[in-house]
Amino acid sequence: MRLILLGAPGSGKGTQAQKIEKNFGAMHISTGEIIRENINSKTEIGIKVEKIINQGKLVPDDVIIELVKDILNKPNIKNNFVLDGFPRTIKQAEALDKITQIDKVIFIDTNIDATKDRMLKRRVCPLCGKTYADTLVCPNCNVALVIRSDDNEQTINSRFEVYKSQTSPLIDYYKQKKLLFKVDGNQNIEQVFEQIKCILNEGNI
Ligand SMILES: [Zn+2]
Q: Which domains are assigned to the chain?
């Protein structure tokens, strides 16, 4: 199966992609993770991308497309993957069409305002840096949690802006191609995955 997971920040794409990998054997391909790995192991592309990110800019389409193309050409991945975090723009989607044929696109539909609110309210431990949504004290360090810094608030706001302007047009793009399947993402992880399972068990992919 060749799948794409679409959804706003905080919609749980990564979690659901992992569950699809575990239950259906499709390789979970997270472009964010691949970029981080390249930065950490200081590959040529990693060094280039790190500079771009440090300037506060978005990684250009052609760099990400090149990375994805390399991965999707691997024989063990070619026909068996779930993309998480790619495509993020129409330009990336058009490039992907030239690389492979997608079977289904699953859109995890969430209430954007509620998710954003929840992300902005998340508290972080000043000692271990872990993030918590529903407690005021870090269970590991036993110190009071703090609200994320303005810097993070700005990052969260800009992630949602980028999603609205660049990524949400993909919903119509794939709807027109009759590849889009929508699930209600305002439920718990297991309920969302039940819906995804139904979609993946339908038809031959
Ligand atoms: Zn802590």
A: 2-111+167-201 (3.40.50.300)
Q: Six-digit token pair at 60?
A: 């250009």
Provide the pLDDT for residue 18. Answer: 94
CA of 34 to the centre of ligand 1 (A): 27
Model confidence over 27-81: pLDDT tens digits?
999 988 888 888 999 998 899 988 887 777 778 888 899 889 989 999 989 899 9
Give 153-159 contacts, CB < 8 A, sequence gap 24+.
Answer: 153/120, 156/9, 156/116, 156/119, 156/120, 157/116, 159/9
Residue with tokens 């872990």: 130
Q: How far is the CA of 71 from the centre of ligand 1 (A)?
A: 36
CB 58 within 8 A of CB 162: yes
